[in-house]
Write a structure and sequence with these properties.
The complex is a heterodimer of chains A (about 400) and B (about 140). Chain A is mainly alpha-helical and about 400 residues long. Chain A has 16 helices and no strands. Chain A has a single domain, classed as Up-down Bundle (Amino acid/polyamine transporter I), CATH 1.20.1740. In chain A, helix 2 packs across helix 12, helix 2 crosses helix 14 and helix 3 packs parallel to helix 10. Chain A starts with a helix and ends in a 6-residue tail after the last helix. Chain B is mostly helical. The longest helix of chain B is centred in the first third of the chain and has 30 residues. Classes of the chains: A mainly alpha (about 400), B mainly alpha (about 140). At the A-B interface, helix 4 and helix 12 of A face helix 2, helix 3 and helix 5 of B.
Chain lengths: ~400, ~140
Amino acid sequence: MKRVFAVALGILTAIGGFVDIGDIVANAEAGARFGIAHAWVLVVGVVGICVYAEMAGRVTAVSGRPVFDLVRERLGPRVALANLAGSLLVTVLTLGAEIGGVGLALQLATSVDYLLWVPVIGFVLWAALWRAKFSVLENIFGLTGLVLIVFVIAYFRLPADHGELLRQATHPSPGDGEDWGTYWFMAVALFASALTPYEVFFFSSGAVEERWNAKDLLTSRINVFAGFPLGGLLAFALMLTSATVFHPLDLSVDSLSQVALPAAIAFGKLGLAAAILGFFAATFGAAMETGLSTGYTVAQYFGWNWGKLRKPRDAARFHTVVMAGILAGIAVLMTSIDPIQLTEYTLVFSAVALPLTYLPILVVANDRGYLGDRVNGRLANGLGTVYLIVVLAAAVAAIPLMIITRMGGG
Amino acid sequence: MAVAAGAVTILWAGLAYDVARPADYRDYSRTMVQVAESAHDAAQTGRLVAQEQLAGRLTGLYSVAAYDDAAKGLAGAQKKFAAQGPPDKASAELRDRLSPLLAGTVEALGDTAEAGDDRTREIGVEKLGGLASQFQDFIEAYG
């Protein structure tokens, strides 16, 4: 019974934890501008993160060590440094975007400018990562993030043109006022939002924090194959409701306040409150994950003590890096860059850095020295290779598309 | 290495030329369409927020934040509008067509955001809806 409860809790937190500011922004923007013509990208992205998160979870459960640690050992410090540099830059920028997202959610609830919230959020985030237990943090924000389900229910309350939505999903095209350049730019951003590098590092390091071993492989797989797709469903609901409310009006979405509107139209103040709470939980939860991931990657690369299981004084350098990451994220926001814009840039850079994250995982997941008989099978290798090609294509296309489409503006 | 450096230099020079060359009608109309799109979004968002306020579906604090976001979008459009002068007579006609729409949106959005009663909000919904349609016409004509 205890195990069933643990598995259920794991799935629920994976669902709630899947959505972050990148998913919120990219899906709502795509829905408003292109309807659900990008639904297939979300499916491709969710399958991709499942493939690689399963590998990362398996590597950690069997070897007892996080993926990044093994990447350095297996591929050497130079390759691991490239991996570290790419993922760290993207993770710190994502951390800034998430903190900004929390600020924007608080602005919607209080009407106080998000920039005034940023230092407060930074302090609370640091204190939470310093003092609170890993499982408590994961469960509280993962479960609270589930209130985003309001967007799934809202879709059924909104006056949607189901036939038109089905046509958009089955005949993907840019539609009026858009072109293929902006369509593919948005596709790359959506793909990157589903496969953000920090997600696998956090999943893998979190498995070590929760002391997973080979017996937990089933739990890991259930979390991945049930939690992530259901999390993807929440992201799809954001796209769907945005496509229902904004797309018929030719209205672009470029603020969090707009993203919340469909929930308010469907359920009034209660729906609005649920949407704002969901944004807060999703972005604060992701801020914690990215904050910890900053420390995880650096500490694992240099071989320092790390993790929430150790007392802060025993993992001082890990906590220092986490704190530096939070300060760097705050510094980026204090330039007064719009958090939504920061998120858009982060998604582009994330797309560029994807191969640096996923290629080493594929290599390590095939090493019998770490995994014995649990190395990738044909299916995992086949899918892993196909996704590596997709990831490479997205990485190569990201910057040219950004320039040609002027950041998706057309 | 030298080839890569050469390629980057040529790319950079191309980009510099593209940014620095004087604007013509095509560039200007493109900018004006972008301005109209941003202003259209601000007007539509303001209309939606006011409409939902009238239906009692929004909290006051959220409405303030949502109007602020719409106003910021509109301010960005105005900045873009003012940043570039019309390079010829045809461009000046575009400017003259867009200018009163922008001014009207600033006024209507401000009045609706500050409205203390439902009647003013209803007028705001009507005005902002009308302005959004006019921006849409502009975008379709020149986009």
